[in-house]
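Subject: Sanity check before I submit

Could someone independently write out the C-alpha cells for this chain? I want to compare against mine line by line before I put it in a report. The sequence has 211 residues.
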Amino acid sequence: MVNAYHRQDAAARGLLVCLPGQSYGLDGPLLYYTKRVLQDRGWDTLGLTYGFQTTMSDLSAETLATCLVEAKALVGAGRAARAYPRLGLMGKSLGASVLAWLCRDQEDLVSARAAFLTPLLGTPMFDASFVAGSGPAYVALGTLDRFYDPAALERLQAQRRFQLRVVAGQDHGFDFNGDLESSLRDLRTVIGDLVDFFEADNLTVAGAVAA
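---
Independent answer below. Compare away.
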C-alpha cells in the first residue's frame, strides 16, 4: 500500500481521501484536478495506490479483499493524523466499489461525503454496498460507459437518495471522447460538481442531471 499525503501548513479545512480505479490512478484527471483544487482551497488530501498495483499483480478475490483492508487503514490513518472539520471520500470505478463497502462497513463514516465516479453499476460488488449506505453521496458516469444502465440507476434511486450527474458521450475512462473541447468541458463540469459537493455547507439531493 502506497499513500500520497498532501498536508497543509495551517489547519486544514478538510480531508479528501482518493481511491483510484484498477487502471485509473491518482493522476487520472477526475481525481487529480479535484484534489488539486481542494488543496488550493486549504484541504489535506490522501491518495491510495493499491498493493496489487505496486506489485503489478492481477486483480482477484484475494487482492480485492486486500484493497478493502488497505482502504480502511488509509481512512483511519488520515483521520488520526489531525482533527478535520470535514471528510470527503472519492472513488473511481473499482475505487467506487471499495468506497461503497467502506461506507457500509464503517458506521462512523455516515457524515462523510462520498463521491462515486463511474461505478460498476449492476454488480453485487457495488450495488448492494451502495444502497446500504446512508451518508451524502454523489454519483457521476457517462452514457457510453459500459456500466451505464438507466434501469440500475432507477433501482438505486428507489432505495437511496443521492446526487447524480449523467454525462452524454463519455465512456468509462472519462478522459477523452474524441473531441478535446467537449472532453475538457465534461471534466470541468464533474470536477465543479465534486468541489461543490465536498465544500457546500448544505447539500440538496437532486435527481439526474445531463451534462
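---
OP: Matches mine. For the report I'm noting this point. The mean pLDDT is 90.
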